[in-house]
Amino acid sequence: MKFNLASVALAMAIPMSGFGQDTATAVNNQYQKTVSEESFTTSPFNASAKRFNDWSISVGAGVPLMQTADLTSIKNGNGKNLFGYSAYVSIDKAITHAFGLKLQYDRGETRQGWFNTKDAAPANASAYQQVAGRTQYDAISILGDINFSNLLRRVDNRSAFRWALHGYAGIGTLAYKAFQKDEAGQRLMTEVKPFKLNSLFGQAGAGLKYKISNRVDIEGRLMYVITGDDEFDGGGVHTSAINQRSENTSDNFFNATLGLTFNLGKHDNHLMWHDPLQEIYYKMDVLAEKNQDITVCKSGDADNDGVCDDWDRQIDTPAGARVDGSGVALDTDLDGVIDLYDKCVTVPGPVENQGCPTSNPVGTVDDQSRVLEGIEFDLNSDRILPSSTPILNNAVNYINSSQGDYRVVGATDTRGTAGYNMKLSEKRAGNVKNYLVKNGVQSGKLEAVGRGKQDLKYPECDPATKCPEWKNKANRRVYFEAK
């Protein structure tokens, strides 16, 4: 269907002014309770929201090559490269989707000079070339981690997000033993202990990560290590003949590694892999001209509410009803009557009184209107989300104004075993009951039960991979029913 720019702006602005609910369909002049997690789960995009994993562990190994030194690893006097070894392990903390910190431990050995210290000097080598060195090192550093791919991602980029370019830089303490070998044999030339003033060093570089799964990444990394020490290469003290061959004031090296990152936590995604643009609920083609009409919904908009059918959670919205960003009719006072039919939009009231309060609470309420939906949970969690507070407070008022008793029912999605889900659903129901009792509901009016994954709001989501995540989230819920 065609919309001009004014219509598109209006369709996107109106949904953001209210709360979202589940389908509000009139059944025998009674409207379903219409609250869901989608209504209140808009959270700040940061690590404290705890909707993403933000801790990980990285391990890797590679090859260090001395580059700036008197004795180098790259293209020595015989035209050969001398390869050492290196390994690292780090504990990583993501602060935002584009920045994090690493506490990293490095261990390795560089090899430099005109031959490998494990070999004998070449027979045709001159006295000048009969020198080799190796350096065993241990280092602890703190590195800043910038995710350039997330930081610089184009707003119109709709491609899958599996590659990420990272930049690293930091400082730390370096301990090492430098050995030298010549015609007199091999001997220790320099030893530096950690956590001393002369043991400070810095390193910086870049890494390219590939997301193998939500839990594992693989990364190729190239770092440049600045030792700040002219004796690191095994050339001896600064006054030695070997250490005066070059005018370089410090011995630096490249460190090329290949490693794995293991993302820790209970959530599906890691903060560093989350693309903020995934929060956008609409898609638009690039405008050829500023005032050109555009095709917003390639899949159609059956109920003409301005939300495309592909992501419309209520495709039969009544004509004239205002909707939220997911296409669900608004119910501002959360009383179960959508605003279109509510005669008292801002004041809760029973559905049989068209959403307006009555002077005398109705004593008998049918089962359909007793059902309060919408208290949903994170995956594998029984913690009541702060965003559920308005729903629970509404339930307190609703239950206290009625004369019936209620069953607080906990449910899960289809992930996990039946036994695990049964226990999880019982915990969810128990937490909700405790909240209601603490806020004024008589304990005797409530009974908490768990039904695990046998009570799905969307039965077609078995297994969970058959459905979009919003349906699985709706299955992870607590609701109320009349006893």
Describe the protein in words.
This protein is mainly β and 483 residues long. It has 2 domains: 2-36 and 291-482, OmpA-like domain (60s Ribosomal Protein L30, Chain: A); 53-273, Porin (Beta Barrel), CATH 2.40.160.20. Helix content is 12%, strand content 30%. The protein is built from 6 helices and 17 strands. The chain has an 8-stranded antiparallel β-barrel with strand order 4-5-6-7-8-10-11-12. Strands 14-17-15-16 form a 4-stranded mixed beta sheet. The protein has a two-stranded antiparallel sheet with strand order 1-13. Strand 5 (85-94) and strand 6 (99-113) form a beta hairpin. The longest helix has 21 residues, at 418-438. The chain is elongated, with a radius of gyration of 32 Å. Residues 1-43, 279-291 and 359-371 have low confidence and may be disordered.
Give the SSE layout:
Blueprint: E1 2-3, H1 5-13, E2 26-27, E3 30-31, E4 55-68, E5 85-94, E6 99-113, E7 132-147, H2 148-151, E8 163-182, E9 185-192, E10 200-211, E11 216-226, E12 252-264, E13 294-295, H3 367-370, E14 375-376, H4 389-400, E15 406-410, H5 418-438, E16 446-450, H6 469-475, E17 477-482
Parallel strand pairs: 15-16
Antiparallel strand pairs: 1-13, 2-3, 4-5, 4-12, 5-6, 6-7, 7-8, 8-9, 8-10, 10-11, 11-12, 14-17, 15-17
